[in-house]
Amino acid sequence: MHHLLFGTVNPDNLIPLAAVAGELQVVLNRTGHYNGPVSGTFDDTTRASLMALVGSENLEERWDGTGDTIDRVVVDYLLRRFG
Questions:
Q1: What is the SS3 assignment for 28-71?
Q2: Residue from 53, 59, 50 nearest 17 by CA
Q3: Given a cut of 60, is residue 6 above it in pLDDT?
Q4: How many separate domains does the chain show?
Q5: Residues sharing a CB contact under 8 Å with residue 18, sequence separation 6 or more, in sequence order
Q6: Which range of residues forms the domain containing residue 53?
Q7: Contact between 33 and 52 (Cβ < 8 Å)
Q8: What's the predicted TM-score (pTM) here?
């Protein structure tokens, strides 16, 4: 858990948010953080919803809500936990 919550982000593990937008929208729908369509487009609504979920899971050290990429560790964790 410590590595997940406080580990250093490896730049080689960053993936484009656009590549996982649809999967994340499904997860966000399941958790109640997002009620929009599963469009596969990483828009402002999806970003705000993901930021809320990341905050509730204490993963802010791994993704601060900015940029066009996200740590694969965060995506894998969210998919395992809520996917």
A1: HHHHCCCCCCCCCCCCHHHHHHHHHHHHHCCCCCCCCCCCCEEE
A2: 50
A3: yes
A4: 1
A5: 41, 42, 68
A6: 2-82
A7: yes
A8: 0.92
